[in-house]
């Protein structure tokens, strides 16, 4: 192993330890959205560390331009979604699910902004992040990680929807009928 590979492996283990700590409650609840999200994060982290050496090569090549576009969409979506959730979601103690983190404990169904088009802007953000990282240096290992991460993000969204249906009931079922899961007008 080269020094660069050892450093990237050490970073993977260090960041993974932080993700385990952050996700510890969700990891004790297999099937919760946080459980699936943890494994998606691991795939994304692995792919990032795999591709980071070529992050800035050929900066104006088509694959790099596509990658940067996807990464910008990802950044916008996550910032927008967190803002909207914090502003309109009314996080409260009524949602005492240990697998939920602070701002996820919404007591008000949020349908404003991106939530008016897709039910999971934050997971959509991770999806765009996944494919943006993949485009930085496409390869078969990165491709497998991107496909697995995509499947895990869909599993995350479905688990989250089951949790939302339990809490919001009919209102969430109606919301599902008029929005897409991850990509506006498509999926």
Explain what the structure shows:
With 187 residues, the protein is mainly α. 66% of the residues lie in helices and 0% in strands. The chain contains seven helices and no strands. It has helices at 3-22, 24-27, 33-51, 62-88, 121-136, 140-168, 170-178. The longest helix has 29 residues, at 140-168. It is globular.
CA distance, first residue to last residue: 41 Å
Number of E-type strands: 0
Spatial shape: globular
* Low-pLDDT windows of residues: none
- Beta-strand content: under 5%
Could you give a short account of the major beta sheet?
Answer: none
Number of helices: 7
Quaternary structure type: single chain
Helicity level: 55-70%
Calculate Rg over CA atoms: 17 Å
Kindly summarize this structure in a few lines.
This protein has 187 residues and is an all-alpha fold.
Any descriptors?
single chain; 187 residues; mainly alpha; 0% strand
Tell me the layout of helices and strands.
Layout: H1 3-22, H2 24-27, H3 33-51, H4 62-88, H5 121-136, H6 140-168, H7 170-178
Helix pairs in contact: 1-3, 3-5, 3-6, 4-5, 5-6, 6-7
């Amino acid at each position: 192993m080269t020094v660069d590979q050892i450093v990237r492996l050490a970073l993977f283990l260090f960041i993974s330890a932080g993700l385990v700590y952050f996700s510890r409650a969700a990891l004790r609840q297999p099937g919760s959205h946080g459980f699936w999200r943890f494994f998606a994060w691991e795939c994304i982290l692995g792919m990032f560390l795999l591709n980071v050496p070529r992050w800035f090569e050929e900066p104006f090549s088509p694959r790099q331009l596509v990658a940067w576009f996807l990464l910008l969409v990802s950044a916008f979506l996550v910032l927008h979604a967190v803002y909207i959730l914090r502003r309109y979601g009314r996080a409260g103690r009524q949602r005492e699910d240990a697998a939920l983190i602070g701002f996820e404990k919404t007591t008000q169904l949020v349908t404003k902004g991106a939530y008016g088009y897709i039910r999971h802007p934050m997971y959509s953000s991770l999806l765009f992040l996944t494919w943006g990282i993949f485009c930085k240096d496409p390869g078969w290992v990165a491709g497998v990680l991107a496909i697995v991460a995509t499947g895990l993000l869909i599993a995350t969204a479905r688990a989250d929807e089951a949790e939302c249906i339990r809490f919001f009931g009919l209102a969430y079922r109606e919301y599902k009928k008029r929005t897409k899961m991850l990509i506006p007008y498509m999926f």
